[in-house]
Specification:
CATH topology of the domain at 412-532 in chain A: Methane Monooxygenase Hydroxylase, Chain G, domain 1
Helix content of chain A: 25-40%
Oligomer: heterodimer
CATH superfamily of the domain at 412-532 in chain A: Fumarate reductase/succinate dehydrogenase flavoprotein-like, C-terminal domain
Shape of chain A: globular
Number of domains of chain B: 3
CATH superfamily of the largest domain in chain B: Alpha-helical ferredoxin
Largest interface: A-B, 104 and 93 residues
Number of helices of chain A: 16
Radius of gyration of chain B: 26 Å
CATH class of the domain at 412-532 in chain A: Mainly Alpha
CATH topology of the largest domain in chain B: Fumarate Reductase Iron-sulfur Protein, Chain B, domain 2
Shape of chain B: globular
Structural class of chain B: alpha+beta
Largest sheet of chain A: 7 strands, mixed
CATH architecture of the largest domain in chain B: Orthogonal Bundle
Distance between the termini of chain B: 47 Å
Largest sheet of chain B: 5 strands, mixed
Strand content of chain B: 5-15%
Helix content of chain B: 40-55%
CATH class of the largest domain in chain B: Mainly Alpha
Strand content of chain A: 15-25%
Radius of gyration of chain A: 22 Å
Number of strands of chain A: 19
Number of helices of chain B: 17
């Protein structure tokens, strides 16, 4: 049984940053991921990372923008930490080797991004996430003697001992099918978001909410689960992400009348208002019949106003996406986009050190909810979130491990999980296919828990999710083998997605107001008197979510009307 | 919607049976990807089809496969294009990548080959000392320049079809050497010369590439690994004057001189010149060892003794002119995917300048006084 001071589950930016930070303190570290680390979904982040590194900028300005972006649901103590520590973190990345683009003076260049009051986004063309992720992986290779990597291992459960502490995890080596108990003093969840609960989504196929569901199953509370970000510019064709960097470089949004309609919704910031505002504006234009494209469900994104040379050096990836996936040369003609599911602001509830209320369990990155994003995340704050809270949870998890003996972890959970897998493999071919249930789930969520929501829709989503949960119990798999059995992992992921979806729908039903990404047509106004609070969801031993509330931490910035 | 026939190469390591072909018909829009075709077959017909995939948008690098014999990303290959390159039977063939052991179906062991080679090249920045308090100050162009090799997603498509690696499995290969350029081209790195010396002296290093262009064709991200390898060679030879024990640098120089003189390659001179000339002691054993090749060439009439000894061709003026222009430059020009046109093309368009102003008002005070108008 491998035993480490710190076990990290997930090897995207948050996980890798946590591993490096924990190892630096001298702790023994294992990092485990169901895909090779560079395949993690952090790789898809395009536009950049926010930090107030310009001498005329101030981290307080960044903090205010973030709070306003969150529609005042973000916890201000956490936001202050993130924004204050951002410049040093970005410099650390630069020193580690990230090839941030420079200005004429040779300093890091900054680009404009949505909801920001000045240019604050450091970037590497439009492959910033990839550049960061690959450079962190370079560091993992450099420190291979002190960080044990378990690549292509799939976690089936967290292990909680009789004292209610998290003492490790059970995982399956995908290549062999072997089950293993990983014992640890501290466990950090860094396994990303749950975008696959929605169809379509910009999220990768691996974003199935594993960590959120594992924590929920282990008894840790989730927070802000109703806050689902729809990105304003996803390719109408297939839901792929078109970076906000395009609008940061000056691109326009146009409706069927050729109108720059953002003038009506955000006269000051225009296309660079926060994402919830832009997505709602687009959806309104589409609903009112001013959409474009064959079914009038899209909006034009016009990048031709950006100089071509600049587009080719700074937006190369979306030039490729336009060409390869939509047959459009974005330097010559507009491309059709629409709002698409992109990010989950909610997740496993943590404090500013990444600690969850479950002792020994930490979380960082999209799987977690600190909450720095509140009701709506600003573009280029997610990379920052992963790194700041990845590092902090790595440091704190290692510090916790310092003074303790290795807790006992039995193979009890491993035996349960092995039996669970055997049960899935043994199911008769009478149930539905896993893929069928997944598709119905995704379409349901995208219909009822999207940009505009209401009670009736959310109620039907809830009923459908409960039914799908039942059906998932008999969903059968074709692959009975041990080696790379992706089929059986898909069945387990489906369970994870159903847990996430149920909590998303429950929290959305609960919040009877409109704030940030949650817009309830039946409660169209923000209601600070009743709803300036977080919604927590936990399992409390049963199968159904229980709702409670927690306070929003306010330091210097009182809620105010939000206009862009 | 259209129907496509996919023939997927299957292999189950537990069955003890040999690999086999498995055919599925899928129904999709023609511009959808081969990956979507595979996933449709997996979702609707046979859940046991093994393929790594994640992002579907050609950025995670998971789904490297061969489609109709050509390596690339399944998510980045359209079904209609795949059909166009399919055989007469109109069946799209999908196989695992080459040069790497197969684990199951389309899944190959990248750790055993690809990642091992990446680790060979000291794949992390060795930053110059002293480390500055803020960022290293480096030129704008330098960071855009390395973006091309930074854009590598480690999918393994180039490794799959590297001909040199087929002959010499120990060849460090296109992906790892392209990654090396990411450091050697990075002005913040303190070990350019050591890296180049290390990889020039390695028998399986930068001079082991045979210039076949396969990796450039294979790369779905335009990294052009071979170009990066050639840049490493130019920097090693022209800038650091590293004389490697593989004679790579001398061979390159001999090649350049040979063309300058003859206009087209005069093979009989190339080998001795690579070793310092026909009468250089180092050339003698090399010449003797190449006798069988020479004999074969003569027998197959690829070469006549007269042509070999008295190469009649002389470089035309056009070739000389090219040499004068290229060698007369202060700096070498290098192609780069991310650089196109000149800086004059970047004069901001007035509308964009206006948009940028919107995004740049004064910083906001903590009380949010600027907030409502920002």
């Amino acid at each position: 049984m491998p035993a480490h001071d710190v076990l990290i589950i997930g090897a995207g930016l948050a996980g890798q940053r946590a591993a490096l930070a924990a190892a630096k303190t001298g702790a023994t570290v294992a990092i485990l991921s169901k895909v090779h680390p560079v395949r993690s979904h952090s790789v898809a982040a395009a536009g950049g990372i926010n930090a107030a590194i310009n001498p005329v900028d101030d981290w307080r300005s960044h903090a205010y923008d973030t709070i306003k972006g969150s529609d005042f649901l973000g916890d201000q103590d956490a936001i202050e930490i993130m924004c204050r520590e951002a410049p040093a973190e970005v410099m650390w990345l630069e020193h580690a080797g990230v090839t941030f683009h420079r200005n004429e003076k040779g300093e890091m260049d900054l680009r404009a991004f949505g909801g920001a009051s000045m240019k604050r986004t450091a970037y590497v063309a439009d492959i910033t996430g990839q550049a960061l992720l690959h450079v962190l992986y370079e560091q993992l290779m450099k420190y291979h003697e002190v960080i044990d990597r378990f690549e292509e291992w799939f976690v089936t459960s967290l292990i909680v001992n009789d004292n209610g502490e998290c003492v490790g995890a059970v995982a399956r080596e995908i290549r062999s099918g072997r089950m293993e108990t990983f014992n640890a003093k501290s466990v950090i969840l860094a396994s990303g978001g749950a975008g696959q609960c929605f169809q379509p989504t910009t999220n990768a196929l691996i974003c199935t909410g594993d960590g959120i569901a594992q924590a929920y199953q282990a008894g840790a509370p989730l927070m802000d689960m109703e806050m689902i970000q729809y990105h304003p510019t996803t390719l109408a064709e297939n839901g792929f992400l078109i970076t906000e960097g395009a609008r940061g470089e000056g691109a326009h949004l146009l409706n069927s009348e050729g109108e720059r309609f953002m003038e009506k919704y955000a006269p000051n910031k225009m296309e660079l208002a926060s994402r919830d505002v832009v997505s709602r504006a687009e959806q309104t234009e589409i609903l009112e019949g001013r959409g474009v494209g064959p079914d009038k469900q899209g909006i034009y994104l016009d990048i031709t106003v950006v100089p071509r040379k600049r587009t080719l050096e700074a937006l190369r990836e979306i030039v490729n996406i336009g060409k390869d996936f939509a047959g459009v040369d974005i330097t010559r003609e507009p491309i059709i986009i629409q709002p698409g599911m992109h990010y989950i602001m909610g997740g496993v509830k943590t404090d500013v050190n990444g600690a969850t209320p479950l002792p020994g369990l930490y979380a960082a990155g999209e799987v977690a909810c600190v909450s720095v994003h509140g009701g709506n995340r600003l573009g280029a704050n997610s990379l920052l979130d992963t790194l700041i809270f990845g590092r902090r949870s790595g440091e704190h998890a290692a510090a916790r491990a310092l003074d303790m003996k290795m807790p006992n972890a039995s193979d009890e959970q491993l035996n349960k999980d092995s039996a669970m897998i055997a049960e899935i493999l043994g199911r008769p071919k009478t149930g539905r296919r896993v893929s069928e249930i997944k598709l119905e789930l995704g379409e349901t969520m995208n219909r009822y828990a999207a940009v505009y929501r209401d009670e009736a829709g959310l109620q039907s989503a809830h009923e459908i999710v409960r039914r799908l949960k039942e059906e998932a119990k008999t969903a059968y798999v074709d692959d009975k083998g041990a080696v790379f059995n992706q089929d059986v992992l898909g069945a387990i992921e489906l369970d994870y997605m159903l847990d996430c979806s149920e909590t998303i729908v429950m929290a959305s039903l609960e919040r009877k107001e409109s704030r940030g990404a949650q817009f309830r047509t039946d409660y169209p106004d923000r209601n600070d008197a009743e709803w300036l609070k977080h919604i927590d969801v936990s399992r409390n031993g049963g199968d159904t979510p229980t709702i409670s509330y927690s306070e929003v931490t306010i330091t210097d910035w009182q809620p105010e009307a939000r206009t862009y | 919607m259209a129907e496509f026939k996919l023939k997927i190469r299957r292999y189950d390591p537990q069955s003890g049976a040999a690999p086999y072909w498995d055919e599925h018909t899928v129904e999709l829009e023609p511009h959808r990807s081969v990956l979507e075709g595979i996933l449709q077959a997996r979702n609707e017909k046979d859940g046991s089809i093994g393929v790594r995939c994640s992002c579907r948008a050609a950025i995670c690098g998971s789904c490297g496969v061969r489609v109709n014999g050509k390596p690339g990303l399944a998510c980045h290959t359209h079904l209609d294009d795949a059909l166009a390159s399919a055989g007469e039977d109109g069946v799209i063939e999908v196989e695992p990548m080459g040069n790497m052991p197969i684990i199951k179906d389309l899944i190959v062991d990248m750790d055993a080959v690809h990642w091992k080679k990446i680790q060979r090249v000291t794949p992390w920045l060795i930053g110059k000392e002293p480390v500055p308090e803020r960022e290293y100050i480096v030129s704008r162009e330098s960071m855009i320049d390395v973006t091309q090799s930074m854009a590598c997603i480690q999918c393994g498509a180039c490794v799959s079809d590297c001909l040199s690696m087929e002959v010499d499995p120990l060849f460090i290969g296109p992906a790892a050497l392209a990654k090396t350029y990411r450091f050697v081209g990075d002005p913040r790195d303190a070990a350019h010369e050591q890296r180049l010396k290390d990889l020039g002296e390695d028998k399986h290093g930068i001079y082991d590439c045979t210039h076949c262009f396969k990796c450039i064709e294979a790369c779905p991200k335009g990294v052009a690994p071979m170009n990066q390898i050639m840049r490493l060679r130019r920097i090693a030879g022209n800038d650091f004057h590293i004389k490697d024990r593989n004679n790579g640098e001398r061979h390159e120089m001999a090649f350049v001189k040979n063309i300058e003189k003859n206009g087209i390659l005069h093979e009989a001179d190339l080998l001795p010149d690579s070793y310092g000339g026909k009468f250089h002691p180092r050339a003698v054993p090399e010449l003797i060892s190449s006798l069988p090749i020479v004999m074969t060439a003569l027998l197959r009439r690829k070469m006549t003794p007269a042509k070999a000894l008295l190469h009649p061709h002389r470089a035309p003026d056009g070739v000389k002119k090219i040499y004068e222009i290229v060698e007369g430059r202060d700096e070498r020009n290098e192609f780069n995917l991310y650089i196109s046109g000149t800086d004059a093309d970047n004069e901001p368009n007035p509308e964009v300048a206006a948009a940028a102003e919107v995004a740049e008002p004064a910083a906001v005070a903590p009380d949010g006084s600027e907030g409502s108008s920002a």
